[in-house]
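Bumping with the actual sequence this time:
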Amino acid sequence: MKTDIEIARETPLKKIKDIAIDLGICPDELMYYGKYISKLSYRLIDEEKVKQNNLILVTAITPTKAGIGKTTVSIGLALGLNQIGKRAIVALREPSLGPCFGQKGGAAGGGYAQVLPMESINLHFTGDFHAITSANNMISALLDNYLYQNRGTCKGLKEILWKRVLDINDRSLRSVVTGLNGKANGIPTETGFDITPASEIMAILCLSTSIEDLERRIENILLGYTYEDKPFTVKDLGVAGAITVLLKEAINPNIVQTTENTAAFVHGGPFANIAHGCNSVLSTKMALTYGEYVVTEAGFGADLGAEKFFNIKCRKSGLQPKLTVIVATAQGLKMHGGVAVDKIKEPNIEGIKRGFANLDKHIENMRKFGQTVMVAFNRYSCDTDEEVALIAEHCRCMGVEFVVNNAFAEGGKGAVELAEKVVELIEKRPSKQLLFSYSDEDSIAEKIEKIAKYVYGARHVMFSDKAEKALKNIHRFGYEHFPVCIAKTQYSFSADPKAVDIIKDFEFKINDIIINSGAEFIVAVAGEIMRMPGLPKVPQANLIYLKDGQVEGLS
């Protein structure tokens, strides 16, 4: 089979104005970024249509380094729905340059289920990530200037919380010292960099409902504490308007197309292991304005992305999916069943049986949220008929529908059965009332404990001294009503990335708690999670190059 980039390059693209016309959008409403990419003003969102149309969440079993294919299924399902005559749109996150040049090589789907033009989407796209990076670092520069201009006075800060960001993987930037080489160059300060998808500005952009809401949230960002132990925010700095100006284009959703020339909205990109893992509220609502069926995804496994999609994004936006699709692979189940990674392509019935515990836990969790659930199985050429039949029978015993997805190899035609089953479930027994893991009135500690116990399976939660201090500040400053966003490894239900099997009654330790008062959620850091990833021994960057003016090496 051809590579992703070969398929993408050979796919004839329609002009983006024609994609918009197909949706009923006047071309004059488009903000063009060349022939095939555009932004669309969020002010075109119709809340009544948002409520009427059908939202589908695609999530997955716990991810493995072998990959699960969640984005490919999301795009494929949208293609399949269009194949059976439904007006369907996929709404996805934007790729980050860090993983593209690090481990993954791209994040625009795969095979014949991609969003295009994939080179542009995987690289600089419409500049949203750069705008977020600039806005974040502009706050850093203005804060440093404030401290420099007020050095030696009572206007200084006792503690600075705000960090810079960069959209690359660079472990050397996790801890740095700025302001060296004399007074003229600032005040020497220990600080560091996070990756752009971990920036609170990214979370704010993805949760904002308007430019006014964006500015309000930016104003509320907590930057540090004064010597009187009072919060110091962007409002105190007096620059929320300037930062909003840097984001005035980035707030608008991006519209592109799929390998079958159907519409796709790609906007925002927080990671799910260090942030809330969902595309923007505005992008999802824009898709629901123009699509009868909208397929969206949440990052990593259902314990991370789906949990945050429900408890944060849906809670804050009022969105409610009609159905949740869990993506699984035989290779992933084998790995969770203890099969070594170099053996997962070999037939192993017992390994799959042991791996069912992971799938079952995710199904159980999604049902706790009140979701109607089905399983989409990504089949690989190494999967045997016996293995597929075993998984199908297990899903039947669990009371969930099971469909093999072949969109990677066949595009929309390979997802017709999946699309038909999705429509059937939505029409016959859609998810009713979305159930949250906790209430707004619970304390932050209670919210963390409920997720750890009822989603992960922990026995109890232990808070470090640093986390306990943060909990006191949260209570003191009136942030208890915020939802929580747990930052932890994506490879396990616990905070241990090596615990790939289902462990129960474990101790879940919170090492740190970060107040995102602009995004209006609290980040609880569990385990040794890095907010600035490093590069692997052989980065994907070693394989990316230009040949005859065309990009090679993206996938």
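The tokens above came from a reply further down the thread. The mean pLDDT is 95.
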